[in-house]
């Protein structure tokens, strides 16, 4: 059904009709791992996207309306959340804009390491809900956040649904004014513009219509340092709450 190449490594992620997510090496097509479908997460994969650094794979499930963030090293869910409609497209981008305010922010020490000391690792078999704190996964919080530089997961679905999640976890925008089912979308690297292609169903007797929208998202760009800081705090706190 779906196939997406890793932006950084010799890997390709696949999703088949039974809801299985597979990771293969491109060179010899050797299987790295497979994640079978289950009732709790869902069985109908409708979208796939790699984080720009290639360390996290996101996929959407249409039957349960869930988004799963999966570690590239092991077929395990690091984080999941629900959306209101089935997804049809996902796009994960990284912000490349540079300015003096951002540079000073990126270079600033994160005070959370002073106020929130690192929690002790839990035994491997302690709890399925606290896997990111197990002895062998002590750095999973940082893996979820990735680099200090902001990255954003953009979700598109039916009925004009579009949402943007900083670091794939913290919702920073809901886009309105779009109609139809999302076929493709792209958020510019400076966060100033969102391009969307949708398919609008005009009824049984009329051909569907392909429509292109270009949305102004410069508000996100204007407040990029604040959005980045808030998103990192949210990601850190939400993972700590699972301890």
What do you see in this structure?
One of its GO terms (cellular component) is nuclear periphery. InterPro entries: APC4, Apc4-like_WD40_dom, WD40/YVTN_repeat-like_dom_sf, WD40_repeat_dom_sf. It comes from Micrurus corallinus (Brazilian coral snake). This protein has about 240 residues and is an alpha+beta fold. It has one domain: Lipocalin, CATH 2.40.128.630. Helices cover about 15% and strands about 40% of the residues. The chain is built from five helices and 15 strands. It has helices at about 100-105, 110-115, 140-145, 220, 225-240, and strands at about 1-5, 10-15, 20-25, 30-35, 45-50, 55-60, 65-70, 75-80, 85-95, 150-155, 160-165, 170-175, 180-185, 195-200, 210-215. The strands form four sheets. Strands 1-2-3-4 form a four-stranded antiparallel beta sheet, with no helix packed on it. It has a four-stranded antiparallel beta sheet with strand order 5-6-7-8. Strands 9-10-11-12 form a four-stranded antiparallel beta sheet, with helices on one face. A hairpin with a 5-residue loop joins strand 2 and strand 3. It starts with a strand and ends with a helix.
């Amino acid at each position: 059904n779906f196939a997406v190449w890793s932006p950084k490594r010799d890997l390709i992620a696949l999703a088949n009709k039974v809801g299985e997510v597979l990771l293969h090496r491109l060179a010899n097509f050797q299987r790295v791992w497979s994640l079978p479908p289950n009732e709790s997460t869902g069985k109908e994969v409708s979208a796939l996207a790699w984080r720009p650094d290639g360390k996290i794979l996101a996929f959407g499930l249409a039957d349960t309306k869930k988004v799963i963030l999966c570690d590239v090293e092991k077929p395990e869910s690091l984080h999941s959340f629900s959306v209101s409609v089935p997804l049809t497209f996902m796009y994960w981008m990284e912000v490349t804009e540079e300015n003096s305010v951002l540079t000073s922010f990126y270079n600033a020490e994160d005070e959370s390491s002073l106020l929130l000391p690192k929690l002790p690792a839990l035994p491997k078999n302690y709890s399925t809900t606290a896997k990111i704190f197990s002895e062998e996964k002590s750095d999973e919080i940082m893996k979820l956040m990735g680099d200090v530089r902001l990255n954003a997961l953009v979700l598109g679905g039916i009925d004009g649904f579009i949402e943007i999640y900083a670091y794939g976890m913290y919702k920073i925008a809901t886009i309105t004014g779009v109609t139809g089912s999302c076929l493709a979308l792209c958020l510019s690297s400076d966060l100033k513009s969102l391009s969307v292609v949708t398919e609008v169903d005009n009824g049984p007797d009329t051909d569907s219509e392909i429509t292109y929208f270009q949305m102004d998202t410069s508000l996100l760009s204007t407040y990029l340092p604040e959005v980045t800081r808030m998103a990192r705090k949210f990601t850190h706190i939400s993972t700590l709450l699972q301890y």
